[in-house]
Predict the structure.
Amino acid sequence: MLGVLTGRRRRRDDLFDRSFRECHDCGADVYVLAEDCKDCGAPVVQLVG
Ligand SMILES: [Zn+2]
């Protein structure tokens, strides 16, 4: 949803895109294996499945 605000689509390859997810708090890219956002420290909920 934040992609709409920035007006920029993600143009990364699938592998990279799967390795990161967007922080619901600040929109930063957070590594999927990380437990919290490196930018704002918000806990990142895994949305697997
Ligand atoms: Zn964040």
